[in-house]
């Protein structure tokens, strides 16, 4: 499974949880945000991680402090384009396994 496949599965999963997809692969000079979604009045910046197994800490361990800082800077860039700043949070969707992967959704996975 490729990264784009994992992002597609994550987006479908979150849409089934009643989140609305706003953007995929938002890129700016600070980095990339896999998915930007809306839940009610809140913006949700989503990092999608896929691993074939849970060795070496699994998918969650791959979201390092450095990666979090890049995501926060990219989110600030996205927010700077908006007229008003809505409530926001950073979620993670972790996929483990190749065929029919297990999906774990972590709300408020990290923040500033």
TrEMBL record:
Keyword terms of this UniProt record: Endonuclease, Hydrolase, Nuclease
GO MF term (any one): endonuclease activity
Pfam name, any one: UPF0102
Coiled-coil stretches: none
Family annotation (HAMAP family): UPF0102
Family: Belongs to the UPF0102 family.
Protein name: UPF0102 protein AAW31_03740
